[in-house]
Amino acid sequence: xxxxxxxxxxxxxxxxxxxxxxxxxxxxxxxxxxxxxxxxxxxxxxxxxxxxxxxxxxxxxxxxxxxxxxxxxxxxxxxxxxxxxxxxxxxxxxxxxxxxxxxxxxxxxxxxxxxxxxxxxxxxxxxxxxxxxxxxxxxxxxxxxxxxxxxxxxxxxxxxxxxxxxxxxxxxxxxxxxxxxxxxxxxxxxxxxxxxxxxxxxxxxxxxxxxxxxxxxxxxxxxxxxxxxxxxxxxxxxxxxxxxxxxxxxxxxxxxxxxxxxxxxxxxxxxxxxxxxxxxxxxxxxxxxxxxxxxxxxxxxxxxxxxxxxxxxxxxxxxxxxxxxxxxxxxxxxxxxxxxxxxxxxxxxxxxxxxxxxxxxxxxxxxxxxxxxxxxxxxxxxxxxxxxxxxxxxxxxxxxxxxxxxxxxxxxxxxxxxxxxxxxxxxxxxxxxxxxxxxxxxxxxxxxxxxxxxxxxxxxxxxxxxxxxxxxxxxxxxxxxxxxxxxxxxxxxxxxxxxxxxxxxxxxxxxxxxxxxxxxxxxxxxxxxxxxxxxxxxxxxxxxxxxxxxxxxxxxxxxxxxxxxxxxxxxxxxxxxxxxxxxxxxxxxxx
Length: 591
What we know:
Layout: E1 2-5, E2 31-35, E3 58-60, E4 82-84, E5 91-93, E6 106-108, E7 113-117, E8 130-132, E9 137-140, E10 154-156, E11 161-165, E12 179-181, E13 186-189, E14 203-205, E15 210-214, E16 227-229, E17 234-237, E18 251-253, E19 258-262, E20 275-277, E21 282-287, E22 299-300, E23 306-309, H1 326-338, H2 340-369, H3 372-378, E24 387-391, E25 394-400, E26 407-413, H4 420-431, E27 442-449, E28 455-462, H5 469-473, H6 481-485, H7 490-510, E29 515-516, E30 525-527, E31 533-535, E32 542-544, E33 550-551, H8 580-590
Parallel strand pairs: 1-2, 2-3, 3-4, 4-6, 5-7, 6-8, 7-9, 8-10, 9-11, 10-12, 11-13, 12-14, 13-15, 14-16, 15-17, 16-18, 17-19, 18-20, 19-21, 20-22, 21-23
Antiparallel strand pairs: 24-25, 25-26, 26-28, 27-28, 29-32, 30-31, 32-33
Helix pairs in contact: 7-8
C-alpha cells in the first residue's frame, strides 16, 4: 500500500494549477491514503481524483483554498472511507452519487460554499460515523433518510439555510453520542419528543432557528448531555422539571425565547454547570443564590423584568414579601396620592441625573451583553478563517456580533503562557479609564470558563479594517497579491505618524496618571477604514503613579521591561528606569 502525506508543507501558491500533480497519481494502483491538508493549494478540485484506484481509502484536503465542485465521479471511489475537505472554497451541490460510497465513515466538508440540498442518497451511507456540513449554503429539508445511518456518532449541519421541521427519525438514532448540531438554520415546528432516544448524546445544539412550542418533557431522558443550546427560538412555557435529571450539564442556554415561570431550583445542584444563560425570556420570581448562581461571569439573567433577588452582581431588584393586608394597600395608595408633588420634583431631578450618567451606563450595559457563547458565534467557533494574527500571549480573531452586526476583534489569551494573565491585567488596567481617537477602543473583557470548564480570558476591541502598519510596510508570506502590492502614500505615512504622536501625547501628558506604552512598533499600530492610526496592545504598559513610580499588573514580567528589540531604548536592556522618553525613542525608530 502507498500513503502520501503532505500536511503542513507550505506547498502551493493559491494558484489554478496547484493540484495538477494529483492527476499523475491516477495509475498508482497501490495508493490508499492521500493527505494534502493545511497548505497553500488553490485551483479547482480536479476531476481526475475520481479515477484513483478502487483501493483508495482516505482523502484529506482540508484548510486550503481549493475551489470548484465535488466531482460527480467521486462515486467511483467505492471503497473510500474518509473524505475531509473543510475550510476550502468548494461550491455547487453535494453529488447525488455520494450515496454510492457505502463504505464511507467520515464526511467533513464544513466551512465551504456548498449549495443545493442534502441529497436523500446520503441515507445509503450506513457505515457513516461522522457527518459535518456546517457553514455552507445548503437549503431544503433535513433528509429523513439519515435514519438509515445507524452508526452515526456525530451530525453537525449548522450555519446553513435548512428549513422545515426536525425529522423525528433523526432524533431516533440512539447511536448519536458526540454531537447533534442543527443550529443557525431556518428550522420550524416543535422539538420532537423523540429526543428521548438520545440517551448517549453529549451535545445538542438547536439554537438560532424558529422552533416553537413547549420544551418536551422527554428532553430529561438525555442524561448524558453536557451541553444544551436551545437559545434564539420561540419556545414557550416553563422549563420542564424532567430536566433535573441532566446533572452532567456544563452549559445550558435557553436565552431569547418566550419561556416563563420560575427559575428551577434544581439548577443549584448541577455541580458541573459552568455556563447558564436564561436571559431575554419572561421568567419570574426569586433567583437562587447558590451553585452556578454565585458566579456572575457564568450566569446571565438580563431581560427578565420579573426576576428578583440573587447575588448583587446580577443587578436584580430585591424581592418584596407578599402581603394580603387590604388595609395596608389602602394606606399605601393614600400616602402615594399625598406626595405626588414631591415625587414629581424628585422625578425631574432623577431625569437630570440620569441624563448626566447615561453614557457611562449604556457602556456598562453593553459590556454585560457579551458572553463566551456570543464570542464563539461571532468568530465562527474561532475559525482559522477569522484569525487575524497571533503572538506569544494569544491570538486575535475577527468576529461579527449577530444581534447588531458589530464587527469586533477578539484577543483570546493563551493562558498556558505564564505572562498571559499578567498581560491581560496590565491591558485592562491601562485601558479602563482612557479614551482617545488614536487609541484602539476596548469594548469589554471576558473572564470565565469555556465549554470544557477551562479558564477563558479575552479582550474585545473595535475592529481595525486595514490591519497593522507592519503589514502595510512589510508584507509577510501568506498575504494575498492585493495586500502585498499595496503601498502607503507619503501623505498617508505622515498622517499615521501624526496620529501616533497625538496618542502618545495623550498617554504621557493628558491621562489622570501617565501611561508608558513600552512596546511601540508598527505591529501595534492599527489602521481603520479611513487609514487613521490607532495604538494598540497595552499588555506591557506601565502606569506612572503621582509620586513618579511606575507600576503595572505586569511588572513582574521581565519581558515587560524590554519591549521589542530594535524599538526599545538600549538602556532598557541594562536595567534603566522606565520613562515616557522610552516611548519617544521607539517613535523615532518608527519614523
